[in-house]
Automatic annotation (TrEMBL):
The keyword Aminoacyl-tRNA synthetase does not apply. The keyword Transferase does not apply. InterPro entries: Chloro_Bact_Ser_Proteases, PDZ, PDZ_sf, Peptidase_S1_PA, Peptidase_S1C. This is Protease. It comes from Mangrovihabitans endophyticus.
Amino acid sequence: MTDGWNWRRPPTPPAAESGRPAGSPWWSDALTDPWRDPQAPAAVVVPAPPASTGPAPEPVADPDAPRRSLAPILIICLVTALLAGGLGGTLGYVFAMRSGVGAGSTALGAPAQQNPAGVDRAPESLAGVAKTVTPSVVTVRVTGAIGSGFVVTGSGYVITNDHVVEGADSGAMSVAFSDGSTARASLVGRDPESDIAVLKVSKSGLQPVRLGNSDQIAVGDPVLAFGSPLALVNTVTYGIVSALDRTIEAGEPGGVTRYYAAIQTDAAVNQGNSGGPLVDGAGRVIGVNSVIRSIGASEAEAGNIGLAFAIPINQAQRVASDIIDSGKARRTVIGAEVVTGGTGVASGGAQLRSVDSAGPAARAGLKAGDVVTKIDGHPLEDGTDLIALVRKYAPNTVVSVEYRRGGSDMTASVTLAADSN
């Protein structure tokens, strides 16, 4: 036993004996440490790097590293914006010029100089059609009244309505053209029952209209109405064909009753449009504007409510040709007198009051008392429908007729004729 005053460190065993390599750290000989608790396990634990559980940390930029300049990027963006703006402005200008949308004012708001005569439109556009037709349309001035008309021949024949020239002094008639020029007009002839009249003007360089075929139009076709409504000369309105073969009975009490199977349109038509042309989308005249339907209590209060009626050009042209050739028009007849004024049969149809024994109806086998229900497939409501539709056709036209006799339905082919007047 010793009190330790003369303690000496036990001699260090050689590396081979201690089981550790020479030069290893002092704690690596723990297994041979005499002061170690012999019951405690010994282990040298070197912690492993922690496992990655997320995205790698962002690298830390070196604050001392040289920075890349942003100037090239800013220059590229600026050049791109300038190029895009220039291209957009150029395209916008081109499209605006092609669509006719010019600069109406300067940057300061002052009106820009404009040249309407230099504005071009495609001939097939509505503006192109209006530009083509307008020089052929005239304003008819008759003893203080105003109507419309249109030139049909280069020699100066003009078609208008009969009611435009009714009661006029032929010496006081004149026409005005779209360019502001005027010419004296003389009455060639008129047909009150068809509401067509023909004038003649002496003027060189006239531009006649193109005539269409009113039998080839359809409901929904676009139309333009030309004339001088309410004395507003050189007016053009737009609409569609609203209905076909709309039977019209018009006239003043005590005057002539006019019948025709009209073209109905919603183009705005007012007093003063009478006699002007109704034109299709190709610029061809398909009708003569004649009558409006109004809710006004009097003729002076009448105005457009979207119900206007035009005489089909096929009928108007035929009547005008008769007037030019012979001074009077032939009317197409079926050779029977019909019941009119709402006193017909309750079930609809045109009842024949009497039949001319030598007329077209008698030759086809029809008799007094028969009720005509259809002509050429068109249903009839009363006698007015039959008269108006018959006058739509030219003399010598063969039409199919459906009629009732007693309780039987029958059909016949009728060759229409011209009246003897």
